[in-house]
TrEMBL record:
<dbReference type="GO" id="GO:0016462">
    <property type="term" value="F:pyrophosphatase activity"/>
</dbReference>
<dbReference type="Pfam" id="PF01928">
    <property type="entry name" value="CYTH"/>
</dbReference>
<feature type="compositionally biased region" description="Basic and acidic residues">
    <location>
        <begin position="79"/>
        <end position="95"/>
    </location>
</feature>
<feature type="domain" description="CYTH">
    <location>
        <begin position="1"/>
        <end position="196"/>
    </location>
</feature>
<dbReference type="InterPro" id="IPR023577">
    <property type="entry name" value="CYTH_domain"/>
</dbReference>
<dbReference type="InterPro" id="IPR033469">
    <property type="entry name" value="CYTH-like_dom_sf"/>
</dbReference>
<feature type="region of interest" description="Disordered">
    <location>
        <begin position="63"/>
        <end position="98"/>
    </location>
</feature>
<protein>
    <recommendedName>
        <fullName>CYTH domain-containing protein</fullName>
    </recommendedName>
</protein>
């Protein structure tokens, strides 16, 4: 099973330092808008699930619906859920009127209705994220700058089937280059819902 290793950087200076060190290995930059939805009666959140619409801004926008479930914190986070691409026009309809989501023929939305009992969808808001992707030492590193209404967080993420080894490699890289870090104790969604940056 792939597990996501997440380390939090203390601020913009550390983020710039990491980006500069990794710049020869940069593959691309993704600009993401993440919008979240729940059932009107909290059917998803009450079962620690989340419905996200992610808009990826590359050459052309890609709208992707994802429903996920799993722990809200830890340095190593299992990735579980379901994901599908969504027609951009339908994505705009969902954002403008979440009530229309109930009648869409989406596999993810059908799962929300059937497994979680969602009758009516409501919007929760969201946040933006700038993700620089690097191929480094056989790893795909994602260095994020996540912008909430209440502040900005910086983080390094990497998916791996050997999370302990990956965590050690990333920690050694940061220590060798004098970059401070902490373990991520909350997901981006959990930070968004809390309304405050982690300490």
């Amino acid at each position: 099973m792939e597990v996501e290793v997440k380390l939090r950087l203390p601020g913009a200076d550390a983020h710039r330092r990491v980006a500069s060190l990794l710049s020869p290995h940069r593959l691309r930059t993704d600009r993401q808008e993440n919008l979240f939805f729940d059932g009107a009666a909290g059917e998803l959140s009450s079962r620690r699930a989340v419905l996200r619409l992610r808009v990826l801004q590359r050459r052309r926008p890609l709208r992707r619906l994802a429903q996920g479930q799993g722990p809200s914190s830890s340095t190593r986070q299992p990735r579980r859920g379901d994901e599908e691409e969504l027609d951009p026009a339908r994505g705009r309809e969902c954002v403008a009127d979440p009530g229309k989501m109930g009648s869409m023929g989406s596999r993810v939305l059908r799962r929300c209705r059937e497994e979680f009992g969602v009758g009516e969808f409501v919007g929760l808001g969201g946040f933006g994220n700038v993700r620089d992707v690097y191929e480094w030492k056989g790893l795909t590193l994602e260095v994020d700058e996540t912008k909430y209404e209440f502040g900005t967080c910086y983080e390094i993420e990497c998916e791996s089937s050997d999370p302990e080894a990956v965590k050690k490699v990333i920690e050694e890289f940061l220590k060798e280059n004098g970059v401070e870090y902490k373990y991520s104790e909350a997901s981006k969604f959990a930070i968004f819902r809390s309304g405050k940056l982690p300490e």
